[in-house]
């Protein structure tokens, strides 16, 4: 069907093996990741008047591109963040949903991407595991004593380092920590 130039894109210097390390097999090349060409006569075959319609086509092997990206991510041994959430508000005890919502609103108003559990009384451990699983860098922890003292506990999830921060300085401190983490 091709009537002119035919082209093919192959990723150089990369091989993919979905079972790498499992049985010691060598990696295999993924082959073409894109291709196409000119095919002036193809469309005319389907036209009752036999018109010649100039055409050029291209195709990208999305499945192969994703396989390469996945292999590279696995080889780099770094966790890929799947969320843009920067701060997760954790309640250390029951009946603090309204306080969590107030903190979320304050952080949203400061353009800080914030999330909280949508359960009324989530378990603290589940909330921390959610932060770790989703690579959320900061947790703001509140409890009854923190509310009484007008403070929050800021936790850097990756290192588990915690510090107490005055509530009115919370936004400033979070922005500072985020700048240092990036």
TrEMBL record:
Class of the enzyme per the UniProt entry, highest EC level: ligase
Gene3D superfamilies: Anticodon-binding domain, Bira Bifunctional Protein, Domain 2
CDD domains: HisRS_anticodon
Pfam families: HGTP_anticodon
Catalytic activity: tRNA(His) + L-histidine + ATP = L-histidyl-tRNA(His) + AMP + diphosphate + H(+)
Keywords associated with the record: Aminoacyl-tRNA synthetase, ATP-binding, Ligase, Nucleotide-binding, Protein biosynthesis
GO molecular function, one term: ATP binding
Enzyme Commission number, as recorded: 6.1.1.21
Domain Anticodon-binding: 86-176
Example of a GO cellular component annotation carried by this entry: cytosol
Gene Ontology biological process: histidyl-tRNA aminoacylation; mitochondrial translation
Family of this protein: Belongs to the class-II aminoacyl-tRNA synthetase family.
Protein name per the record: histidine--tRNA ligase
Organism, as annotated: Magallana gigas
């Amino acid at each position: 069907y091709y009537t002119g130039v035919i082209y093919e894109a192959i990723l150089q210097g990369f091989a993919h093996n979905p079972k790498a390390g499992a049985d010691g097999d060598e990696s295999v090349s993924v082959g073409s990741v894109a291709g196409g060409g000119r095919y002036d006569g193809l469309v005319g075959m389907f036209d009752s008047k036999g018109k010649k319609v100039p055409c050029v086509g291209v195709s990208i092997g999305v499945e192969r591109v994703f396989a390469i990206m996945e292999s590279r991510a696995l080889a780099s041994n770094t966790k890929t963040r799947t969320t843009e959430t920067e701060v997760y508000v954790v309640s250390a005890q029951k009946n603090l949903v309204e306080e969590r919502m107030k903190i979320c609103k304050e952080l949203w108003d400061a353009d800080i991407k914030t999330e909280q559990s949508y359960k009324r009384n989530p378990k603290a451990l589940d909330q921390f595991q959610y932060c770790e699983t989703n690579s959320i860098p900061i947790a703001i922890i509140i409890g009854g004593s923190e509310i009484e003292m007008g403070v929050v506990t800021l936790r850097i999830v990756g290192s588990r380092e915690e510090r107490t921060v005055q509530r009115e300085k919370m936004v400033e401190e979070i922005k500072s920590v985020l700048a240092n983490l990036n």
